[in-house]
What does this fold into?
Amino acid sequence: MTTNTTHLTTNATVPSTTPAVAEKTRLDFAKSAPKVFRALIGFDAAAREGLDPALVELIQIRASHINHCAYCLHMHTGDARKAGESEDRLHMVAVWREARHFFTEREQAALALTEAVTLVADGGVPDEIYAQAAAHFDEQELAHVLALIFTINTWNRVALSTGKVAGTDERRR
It folds into this structure.
């Protein structure tokens, strides 16, 4: 079987039991599906509209923790730092329930909703969590928070599926 490597890029070095196979190649999603990639960028940009940039990063960081996406976690913690987010809060996002005093009630509602939507297969989004979020966001804001959760979960899946490596953020090139 012949593989067309025109749109493949080496995204990670993967340990191998065979010395001849030291690297695994994955496609470059942006180059291989440019219309889809641009649509996702547009969806992401629309989702962020009207939301506090600090809240945006907290949502993206929490979903990336849950999805074990080191690439996105590295990217969004860096973005949060550049936006003035404190190291204390960044360290507490993964354990926000045990460190509630670091986060506003609104942020806590968004983080709880992020977890429920990200883990939706584990039992849906509980009414209590949805109601808590609805109490802190008007309908338009809530729709944007949900859309942002959808987009970061999609970005996590793109990064994980294509073997993106933390610390290699292409936006910075």
